[in-house]
């Protein structure tokens, strides 16, 4: 199968590597707004060939859209306009409700499979693409009842070959749960970096004192605003809701520390420790 | 040299392993309130022998106190009372000001070296002890002018053999900078876990959707309240100060999202990205 990756960055590039390695595709076309990305992706042997979107759609069966969710909103309707029964169009966006609403009534809606692999790193661009990024991670497929059976089968087969765990949700559920489990983590990490940069005027101290713990909580703050602002925009209501809860939890901890109620503070930490059981 | 580790948990146990491996000590005595910890530490060959504190002080030169900072406050004066010119007493506590104040006028103050290795994991107990925990990490030594030269030399030599980066500070600076770089990370992580546990009533979803990013920001929330409540208590003023800044940053992000000012939101994320340059 010939597959096209639109957006040859971290996710698109890593997927290209895996599709080839796991035998899902034997030739990968890359499409990217940035000529430099295409060149880099080819140099790194992530893609076999750069192409225009038009050319890529003529030549390939599977088209994966690995671009920021705002760009996805702009491009997806046109791609579906030009899709035929031979095409499978899949996205990998971090929000789903707006995208699914947008294409809900499209005559070629069935060729589209809405997907979100729960995997990534804080880096971006083709250089950030890595092998096995998706192995043993979760792939969420949304509103699959609106995808044609054969298109869904192509994607499910890929998920299987990539050794991913498959989860089905509707778009509304997806955006709610990812706000809780993924989007809020990024907000806290961005805010933590801003906090430390604001308070720690002696920046050399940050480098000296940063242990694994600090690096781990702050690493998502290296993530690209080009990717994340559109996500927060699309999922604004859910993010605001979980952010309110998070600010409330911090205020509660602040109040307990201020009033020196260490007993309740202890119990709160114990309660937070329950995350141990859930994560493994 | 015979060394004693008081508190054979994550830090004490890992240090015991390194002292032996790097040739700093050839025999390790373990002292622990919990008999089970001692047995486990011996079984895992982390220590050579369990001992009482009294016995251990008679037999060893270097005594490392790797216990929670509240327990340290209680035990350190007695240990100094019984220390002779042959002893070097070192702690590894995460706060310093209160401890240094406590022993400031002690006649044997010179035998004490206040140390804080910027290393750890979210786990605790002897089973959590690991090799090379300290390699290439920072060791902060505080108020060294109040330690006897020969005692300081023993510790500096250890730091060198452990291939650690050495940083000197006074206790007040130490507590300020660690509040910014280490303690606040733990607060944000505990609060994030509480947020997610509060919002995500379908706990299975957390496990399914948790990617590396979520795991990394929330992992410190597995940390023990026995260790952390005393730290927050000792460093209350600095922690409250940085926590206020953190809540302020989150409120600012919340306000920008609420008013849909995505341009300023974008700039804030870009600003937080500066952490990239500082961390490497």
Major beta sheet, strand line-up of chain A? 3-2-1-4-5-6-7-8
- SS-based class of chain A: alpha/beta
Q: Assembly type of the shown chains?
A: homodimer
Distance from N terminus to C terminus of chain A (CA atoms, Å) equals 38 Å
Please, what is the CATH homologous superfamily of the largest domain in chain A? Answer: NAD(P)-binding Rossmann-like Domain
> Which fold name is given in CATH as the topology of the largest domain in chain A?
Rossmann fold
Count of domains of chain A: 2
Count the DSSP helices of chain A.
13
What is the C-alpha radius of gyration of chain A, as a whole number of Å? 21 Å
Mean pLDDT rating of chain A = 96
Biggest β-sheet strands, sense, barrel of chain A: 8 strands, mixed
**What's the total number of strands of chain A?**
8
The largest contact between protein chains, plus residue counts on each side, is:
A-B, 91 and 91 residues
Low-confidence stretches of chain A: none
GO molecular function, one term (chains A, B): prephenate dehydrogenase (NAD+) activity
Domain Prephenate/arogenate dehydrogenase (chains A, B): 1-280
Pfam family, one (chains A, B): PDH_C
Protein name (chains A, B): Prephenate dehydrogenase
């Amino acid at each position: 199968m010939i597959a096209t990756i639109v957006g040859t960055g971290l996710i698109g590039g890593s997927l290209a590597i895996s599709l080839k390695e796991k035998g899902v595709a034997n030739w990968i076309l890359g499409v990217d707004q940035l000529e430099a990305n295409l060149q880099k992706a080819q140099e790194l042997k992530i893609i076999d060939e750069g192409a225009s979107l038009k050319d890529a759609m003529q030549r390939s069966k599977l088209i994966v859209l690995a671009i920021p969710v705002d760009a996805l909103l702009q491009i997806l309707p046109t791609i579906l306009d030009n899709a035929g029964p031979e095409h499978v169009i899949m996205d990998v966006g971090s929000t789903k409700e707006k995208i699914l609403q947008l294409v809900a009534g499209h005559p070629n809606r069935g060729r589209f499979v809405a997907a979100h692999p729960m995997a990534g790193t804080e880096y971006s661009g083709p250089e950030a693409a890595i092998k096995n990024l998706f192995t043993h991670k979760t792939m969420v497929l949304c509103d699959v009842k609106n995808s044609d059976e054969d298109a869904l089968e192509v994607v499910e087969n890929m998920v299987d070959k990539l050794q991913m765990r498959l989860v089905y949700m509707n778009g509304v559920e997806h955006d709610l749960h990812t706000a809780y489990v993924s989007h809020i983590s990024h907000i806290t990490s961005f805010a933590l970096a801003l906090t430390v940069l604001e308070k720690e005027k002696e920046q050399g101290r940050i480098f000296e004192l940063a242990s694994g713990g600090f690096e781990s909580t702050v690493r998502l703050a290296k993530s690209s605003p080009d990717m994340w602002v559109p996500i927060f925009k699309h999922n604004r209501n859910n993010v605001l809701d979980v952010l309110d809860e998070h600010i409330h939890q911090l205020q509660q901890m602040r109040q307990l520390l201020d009033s020196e109620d260490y007993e309740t503070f202890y119990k709160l930490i114990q309660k937070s420790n329950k995350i141990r059981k859930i994560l493994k």
